[in-house]
Amino acid sequence: MEYSVLLDEYAPAPTDAEVAATVAAAVKDAAECGDEAVWRFCLESLDLTTLSYFDSERSVADFVRRAAQMTQSYPSLPEVATVCVYPSFVDIAGIGVEGTGIGVTSVAGSFPTSQTFLEVKMLEVAMAVENGADEIDVVMNGGELVEGEPDRLVSDLGLLREEAGEDTVFKVIIESGLLGTAEDVYRASLLAIFAGADFVKTSTGKAACGATPESAVVICRALKEYYRRTGKRVGIKIAGGVRTAEDAALYYAIVRNMLGDEWLTPSLFRIGASAPLASALISAITGVSEPYFK
Predict the structure, then answer these.
(1) CATH class of the domain at 3-286
(2) Residue 137 among the catalytic residues
(3) For this structure, is 121 an active site residue?
(4) Predicted TM-score of the model (pTM)
(5) Is 237 marked active-site?
(6) pLDDT in tens, 170-213
(7) What are the structural domain ranges in the chain?
């Protein structure tokens, strides 16, 4: 399929003025909807992440154990959606969440750059799933995107989708902070969807610029346009620099305003973040100031 032709059939990306107006409205709404119900939803939509240079079997096991025991310490809290780890720690994470409702997400496919042999990326995805990953986050190849090779890009991502399998939630990271314009973010989002993404994810969290309200608005526009044309809903995952309960509430407001309450479910809305956001949400809900995650 000629995906450049298919892209041209879609409505254009929002203008900068449209994006700014949408963000301004969401900022106002976030100030009003930042309450316990919203924070609880953001916590249960959290892919609680540890992707550190210093990750080890012991540190990941401790991190996952802490996540699994959270509702024992605070029985009124919901569980997080998943814990997100490197592929080599999937089995450890799986053991740690056994007996809970928490899933295991793994980044894979040469995270965070996607710059290696396609066969290596395919094998890494397959191994992560074989070791027990419920969800896979892969990175779109930025070189194929900027060089204008949408057919190759979608084909490569599609092969990773096949390796993950239909029973595995498949998220594609577009690294929106490195894309220059709203049009770039919009087209990248649509290409991720064409390749079979269940979620379009903003960022790896490893680039200088992570998620922004503006990029979230553009991704939501792509999801809305795709739904209008096909009747199929694709989720959004916000990741990269989301650290406070107020940050989470703003992205909640953007998704609610643009896509409606139908998208306010962990099956269509996720936040990928590490310990600071989890602790901030727990503190906001419980009123306990001591951070739960150190």
Answers:
(1) alpha beta
(2) yes
(3) no
(4) 0.97
(5) yes
(6) 999 999 999 989 999 999 999 999 999 999 999 999 998 999 99
(7) 3-286
